[in-house]
Design brief:
single chain, Rossmann fold, 9 helices, binds S-adenosylmethionine
Length: 257
């Protein structure tokens, strides 16, 4: 299936393997051909894109980069091994993904992040540690899940500090929504795990109620609702910032039923 992409049963030819520069997309877009319109959970920040981060795309993208247009992910071909597959969505600067890949060398990791400087930064870090069990998409997680990840392919999904969109009128942009939980469930293997963390109390409640109302996920915390931060999750930049602002932190851990 490499060189092709799956669109709910149909197949479209490969277009490219290197991401093109990304202009800011509209808030709501159908994205690729055949894709349902959805509200984007991100706004591409202009931010600083350092020469080193830009160079990473020339030097390391061929090793670490994956393209949605290349279609369904073939893990054996991509990683050369058949190990448990962990997906981290919205990895930001990638500190957690780097730490996980070093700490859990017997797993394969796929990261998705729309923010190009973060992808460049992580590729430089991965290359400097000669990490070989991580691959990255510089794209919208929904497109990756829809076009590249086969049903029941994932063993773990990790989403740490997704954008909270705190204002009432922005909350429709939150990534964790019923359709998204259903898509994750479909792509996660039986007994697979979903781990979420946030430093926004009302987003934690929102995540909890989304997952509790889904028949696909069982809360490992039971009536306690939230779990203590597991030792595999390090404190990222966003978590530190949240704590500095006096926010609490909530971890949710769910098993795929
Ligand atoms: C608040 S940051 C947290 C980053 C990181 N997980 C951490 O804890 O430091 C949320 C990240 O999710 C990314 N993001 C938001 N929606 C996304 C989507 N649909 N697909 C991929 N990345 C997304 C944003 O670009 C941003 O870097």
């Amino acid at each position: 299936m490499r060189g092709q992409r799956l669109i709910t049963g149909s197949v479209v030819k490969d277009r490219s393997s290197t991401p093109s520069p990304q202009p800011s997309p509209p808030a709501k877009s159908a994205g690729r051909e055949g894709e349902k319109r959805h509200i984007r959970s991100f706004v591409l920040r202009q931010g600083r894109f350092t020469p080193a981060q830009q160079r990473a795309f020339t030097e390391h993208w061929p090793r670490y980069g994956l393209s949605v247009d290349a279609g369904a992910l073939d893990t054996r071909r991509t990683f050369g091994s058949h190990a448990p597959l962990v997906l981290e969505i919205g990895f930001g600067n990638g500190e957690q993904l780097l730490s996980s890949s070093l700490r859990e060398p017997c797993k394969n990791f796929v990261g998705i992040e729309v923010h190009r400087p973060g992808v460049g930064r992580l590729m430089n870090a991965l290359a400097s540690h000669n990490v070989d069990n991580v691959r990255l998409y510089n794209d919208d997680a929904i497109a990756v899940l829809e076009h590249c990840i086969a049903p029941a392919m994932l063993d773990e999904v990790r989403i740490y500090f997704p954008d909270p969109w705190p204002k009432k009128r922005q909350q429709k942009r939150r990534l964790i929504q019923p359709d998204f939980c259903a898509l994750l469930a479909e792509r996660t293997a039986a007994k697979g795990v979903l781990h979420l963390a946030t430093d926004w109390a009302d987003y934690a409640e929102h995540m909890y109620s989304m997952l509790e109302s889904s028949p696909d996920w069982r809360n490992r915390a039971g009536t306690a609702r939230f779990i203590a931060r597991p030792d595999w999750r390090i404190e990222t930049h966003f978590e530190k910032r949240g704590r500095r602002l006096g926010h609490g932190v909530w971890d949710l851990l769910y098993d795929r039923c």
